[in-house]
Design a protein that fits this description.
There is one protein chain. The protein is of the alpha+beta class and about 90 residues long. It has one domain: Transcriptional coactivator/pterin dehydratase (Gyrase A, domain 2, 2-Layer Sandwich), CATH 3.30.1360.20. A four-stranded antiparallel β-sheet has the order 1-2-4-3.
């Protein structure tokens, strides 16, 4: 099991990510697209990196908005796996 990051480690990692926020024990971002089709196309692009990492985000879709939340459920909070996947997701358009 991955080890939980300390508050200091979480803040240091969060400072490296643009647009992501730490909310409780989750890392989250909301992306806005032109329309529903573009939002779904973006979500489909998340499949391969999530599968490769063996780490899957919680995703909410509301028309043209996609909210992504990352947390390591089996560890009970934020681990390096969350920040690594967030960095990959940040590069997806």
């Amino acid at each position: 099991m991955a080890h939980l990051l300390t508050e200091a480690e979480i803040q240091a990692q969060a400072n490296l990510l643009s647009g992501w926020n730490v909310v409780g024990s989750k890392l989250e971002i909301t992306r806005t697209f032109k329309n529903f089709i573009q939002a779904i196309e973006f979500v489909n692009k998340l499949v391969e990196p999530a599968e490769s990492a063996g780490h899957h985000p919680d995703i909410e879709i509301s028309y043209n908005k996609v909210k992504i939340q990352l947390t390591t459920h089996d560890a009970g909070g934020l681990t390096q796996k969350d920040f690594d996947l967030a960095a990959v997701i940040s590069q997806i358009n």
